Amino acid sequence: MISLALPKGSLERRALQLFAAAGLDVRRSSERSYRGTIDYAGMTRVAFYKPREIPLVVESGSFDLGLTGADWVEETGAKVEVVESFDYSRNTEKPWRLVLAVPADHLATGVGDLDDGVRVATEYPNIGRRFFQTAGRRAEVIVSYGATEAKIPELADALVDVVETGHSLRQNNLRIIETIRTCGAQLVANPAAYADKGKRGVIRNVARLLQAAWVGPAHVLLTVRTSAEHLTEVARAMPGQSWRAGTGLTDENIVVLQGVLPRRDLPQTVDVLLSAGALDVTESGIGILASNPSPA
Predict the structure, then answer these.
(1) Would 140 be classed as within a structural domain?
(2) How far apart are CA 4 and CA 20, in angstroms?
(3) In whole angstroms, how far apart are CA 274 and each of 13, 16, 34, 243?
(4) Which of 66, 265, 40 is nearest to 185 (CA)?
(5) Angle (nearest 5°) at CA 5 between 199 and 58
């Protein structure tokens, strides 16, 4: 019933891992194949495209559903429904960043320090132009088709590009002076397909399966015990997705709280909870966490 576009290239491996973890294994004749299948009721065909192409093929209706980067949804301006977001990148459990960088010996510490007419190489000309307009700087945006670091200094003075760790920039003697935005993967749907009751049900089910598969390894379940005296302070320190789980078996003055937390935030959150008066904090893994989508 629905067709799916998946990313080829940098986001491909993580996309396939996510779908496999959700029980939606993509089968292909070889890793180089641009066509695949998923043994899931309602999924008719799967194809692979460059991440920058996916918002457009979904917007056009060529595909009902696609997984791509939030940066390409913004860059293309495609009119699509964002069904679910996943803050992972190619190699980490954190979102990637779209940044402005200059040579390491440049004196600039921010976009405001760059001269009008600065030459900027980027694969994101629309985002780049809007960024410099908002900053009140005139820039000559040079479209780059890969290896953007190589454009400096001969073809450009600065670049706007994506980074995970910044290692590649440092290797090329470049330095980040601004983070324009953070980006993760997004599951996007064609608006007409999402408005169709039958297709919408399949799309939501796929989104729930993927969200559950992503939450499991990337998050932990915190169980926190606190005294009633410190409940207010401890509750404020709990993650956003939290609830009151009960009271102590023998002491009603002990309150038990639980919450779901990104694994990367665990050390800092535990410190804050204990400082707020928590008696103890227990971490446990999450197998499957899924929630019903909001009503239509």
Answers:
(1) yes
(2) 15
(3) 38, 39, 51, 18
(4) 66
(5) 65
- List the chain pLDDT tens, one digit each, 296 residues: 899 999 998 899 999 989 998 889 999 999 899 999 999 888 889 999 999 999 999 999 999 999 999 999 999 999 999 999 988 777 666 789 999 999 999 999 999 999 999 999 999 999 999 999 999 999 999 999 988 999 999 999 999 999 988 888 999 999 999 999 999 999 999 999 999 999 999 999 999 888 878 876 677 889 999 999 999 999 999 988 788 888 878 888 999 999 888 888 889 999 999 999 999 999 887 654 444 444 44
Is the pTM above the cut of 0.85? no
Structural domain count, the chain: 3
Q: Which CATH number does the domain housing residue 196 bear?
A: 3.40.190.10
Q: Which of 129, 156, 182 is the last residue of a domain?
A: 182
Q: Could you tell me the two tokens for 24?
A: 């939606």
- Domain around 12: 2-93+184-216
